[in-house]
Amino acid sequence: MKKIMCLLFVFAAFVFSSCAAPCPPVKTAEKLPKYIILFIGDGMSSPQRMLAEEYLRKSGKPGLAMNHMPWHSSVRSASADSIVTDSAASGTALATGVKTTNGHFTADKVILCAGGASYPGTGSDGGGAKLAAKVGHTIVPLKPSLVPLVSDYAYIDDLQGLSLRNVRATLYGDGKKLTDDFGEMLFTHFGVSGPIILSLSNMAAEALHKGMEVELAIDLKPALSEEKLDARIQRDFATYSRKQLVNGMKDLLPQRLIPVVCDMAYLDEEKFINQISREERKRLVDTLKRFVVPITGTRPIAEAIVTAGGVSVKEINPKTMESKLINGLYFAGEVMDVDGYTGGFNLQAAFSSGYAAGVAASS
């Protein structure tokens, strides 16, 4: 029975080659074990790598681990150039190993779980997608997902550091509603961030890529209809009727937000509340229900929590994670065009695909 040689191939940034401590070279003539686990640059804690490795170890076969990270004394250094393929008797392409700066390593199975292009300091710089492209795979363009959004909003500096809870944010592209979410958000020095912003960011990035005019409309009081909100404001105004507007809204909004809301509603914040007209009150309600922030971009992909794009899933068997183009080549984790909302979904995708690839590669 043919020995199964599984090579778990984790490729990422070459940046470590210039800053990592030297490691013992790999001898190309060295007899390889039944499977090889080759880590190149990527974080040792990557979930897809851990799951695939764990399953391979449980198969009872000895393994050789190599890594480019300097803080693991038992690893060896190598930088990947390409995945090596050959033609099987049937004429289909077959993965037969990996070509590195320290030689050519052969194996019966290759698992590529290099991550995306987020957090390049951990070794993920999008290189895995480039390796897959070299052997003929279609790559969906990489872009940031779960990433803060950039705004040229005039009030950003005034609101920097302000956190909002229990608000609803709705994303618009060219005036058309794209999606919305409820929860917490934060104003930053560059724009907006926080859980609900991250959830909306993938669609925002797509809209911006298409050249749409993107806006974020924040409902500051989503639990109240316009009628109920107006009644609430009237009660507050009755309590603070002799105060200026800026001092009479303290029960309604965070103090730092009051001047901005007044300005957006074209209200004089120094005007006494008992002089506020019905029309002015209506403008206040409209602003509270639709506080608009223009979105001009996203933060760089290096700052994104997740990378969207990667190896097209149309070319991957969803049950085994094996390539439909090259036998013996498997994928796991963010190197694929798989990304989800915040809340653990992306970790689950990494764990599940790593497990599936490890199971299939060791069969």
List keywords for this structure.
363 residues; alpha/beta; FAD/NAD(P)-binding domain; Helicase, Ruva Protein, domain 3; 2 domains; 5-stranded parallel β-sheet
Strand content: 25-35%
Number of domains: 2
Assigned CATH class of the largest domain = Alpha Beta
Order of helices and strands: EHEHEEEEEHEEHEEEHEHHHHEEEEEH
Let me know the number of strands. 18
CATH architecture of the largest domain: 3-Layer(bba) Sandwich
Q: In whole angstroms, how far apart are the ends? A: 12 Å
Radius of gyration: 27 Å
Briefly note the structural class of the backbone. alpha/beta
Shape assignment: elongated
Strand order of the largest sheet: 14-13-10-11-12-9-15
Summary, kept brief:
It contains ten helices and 18 strands.
Overview of the molecule:
This protein has 363 residues and is α/β, with parallel strands linked by helices. It has 2 domains: 6-142 and 310-361, 3-Layer(bba) Sandwich (FAD/NAD(P)-binding domain), CATH 3.50.50; 148-298, Helicase, Ruva Protein, domain 3. Helix content is 27%, strand content 27%. It is built from 10 helices and 18 strands. It has helices at residues 16-19, 47-58, 127-134, 156-159, 195-209, 226-239, 245-248, 258-264, 278-289, 345-361, and strands spanning 6-11, 35-40, 63-66, 80-87, 93-100, 103-106, 109-112, 139-145, 149-150, 163-173, 176-187, 191-193, 214-219, 291-295, 297-298, 306-311, 326-327, 329-331. Strands 14-13-10-11-12-9-15 form a 7-stranded antiparallel beta sheet. Strands 3-2-1-7-18 form a 5-stranded parallel beta sheet. Strands 4, 5, 6 and 17 form a 4-stranded mixed beta sheet that branches. Helix 2 runs parallel beside helix 10 (345-361) and helix 6 packs across helix 9 (278-289). The two termini are 12 Å apart. Mean pLDDT is 79; it is low at 1-45 and 61-78.
